[in-house]
Amino acid sequence: MLTYAIRRLVLSVPTLLFISFVIFMLLQLAPGDPMAQVPLTVPPEVKQKMREALGVGEPALVQYWKWLVQVFWIEPKVFIDWLTRDSWLLGWLPDTHLYNGELRVISWQTRSPVMDIVLQRIPQTLWVVGLSYVVGVLIALPIGIYSAYRQYSVFDQAGTFITMVGFSIPPFFTGPLLIVIFSVYLGWFPSIYDTTHVVRDWASFKVQLMQMIMPVMVLALQTTAQLSRYMRASMLDNLNQDYVRTARAKGLSEAVVVMVHVLRNSMIPVITVIALGVPAIFGGAIITENVFKVNGIGQLLITALFANDLPMVMTLTFIFAVLIVVFNLIADILYGLLDPRIRYD
């Protein structure tokens, strides 16, 4: 398993390089000049330094090489310096001072390092998107298991109807609908997510919880609808297998048969959906973050697209590509842990 994981990690490097090259060349076709909106009061030497950082006016391959150096060499040094300086994880170590003022990936819109902006937005996205995915998985798995065990029951029929509705209705409809019902008419929850809110005590935590409920509900609804259907189908396929009848004939309790033998085998295909759903939920949160004004990665990508901020768009799309490759590897490794018959030799 370790050899397989190392081999996959090595193979992921050329894969990510190819993906980044394709994305970069496609974005080069987009029109726009990053220096067009620079005020006339900016000194020429400052404009020249900005132009060098952005790689404007150079061949596409030179710009791509600069981007690779900035992302894979300069940005890690900045991140390590931050960890040893401000992070609670490695803050006890002496400062490294690896970064010596080299040119970083600069946003055309804000004229500031792209990764600094991304790191500022990630906590907001994790609060909403991460929690919604965890909630969706925790709700979907029990629903799928019980629906399969009680096939065609009232619970199964109701669950099938609700999940089909949740899977069919897009977030740009459910988001405003929840705002109209729970914010406008009932006044229970705020319609706009306050990204400046800081949790200091129990009262501020309640405020944070109240403003998270609606965006988490919208995202968790789709996750629950999708995963519960996969879980139900996988459980139904395994409940009719010979090993289940053999386990029951041996006198094992129904709980052990369903929750140990059937569930373990049923989770193998569902693991793929869960793992690959992580990058997908980040991409799907673009609409939800804009509906509820969550100042996260999704809203940042939309803003960068409208502003023609190519370095920001390039970096964010590459981050999504990295998530897809990493969670594909995680899914394959979990296969071997759940099913001893699977070996990666």
TrEMBL record:
It is a multi-pass membrane protein. Signal peptide: none annotated. Belongs to the binding-protein-dependent transport system permease family. The keyword Cell membrane applies. It comes from Alloyangia mangrovi. It comes from the Bacteria. Residues 122-331 form the ABC transmembrane type-1 domain. This is ABC transporter permease. GO terms for cellular component: plasma membrane. Its main location: membrane. InterPro entries: BPD_transp_1_N (IPR045621), MetI-like (IPR000515), MetI-like_sf (IPR035906). The chain crosses the membrane at residues 9-30, 125-149, 161-188, 208-225, 268-292, 312-338. The keyword Membrane applies. Pfam families: BPD_transp_1 (PF00528), BPD_transp_1_N (PF19300). CDD domains: TM_PBP2 (cd06261).
